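Recall the central idea of this unit: under ordinary conditions, the amino acid sequence of a chain determines the structure it adopts. In this exercise we apply that idea directly, starting from the sequence alone.
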Amino acid sequence: MKLKIVCDDMELLPTRAHPHDAGLDLRCAHKLGIALQPGERQLVDTGVAVNIPAGYVGLVHPRSGWAYKYGLTVNNAPGTIDAGFIGNVLVNLINHGSDTVEIEYGTRIAQLLIQRVELPKVELVDSLDTTARGTAGHGSTGVA
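Accordingly, the structure predicted from this sequence is:
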């Protein structure tokens, strides 16, 4: 499979840090950088557009180092890029930390994973099959 990408600045081209990494690193495309105050969220342009093939989805995941060190994460993790969307990829970042986070142009801010997805046909039924778990949901298997 090939992922078609439009990117005007090669410094912003998504890359893998290691050959077998699942995620392609997405970078900040704001020429002057950005600053996120504690509790602030912002759509951060990556400077790239992708063409996800039908039957696949692009998932935008946080970078673990940013999350651990500064509380910076993807607000809607994982963000979803559907097949057919060819606009610029924006990352919805939020600062959950207690300090302002400064992000410079070209800094890696998130990871893009491409995965196969099933596209089931929806079937309306009157009831669902019985299971051992039934309708037991949140917290039904214990606290921890």
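Residues 64-70 form the longest helix (7 residues).
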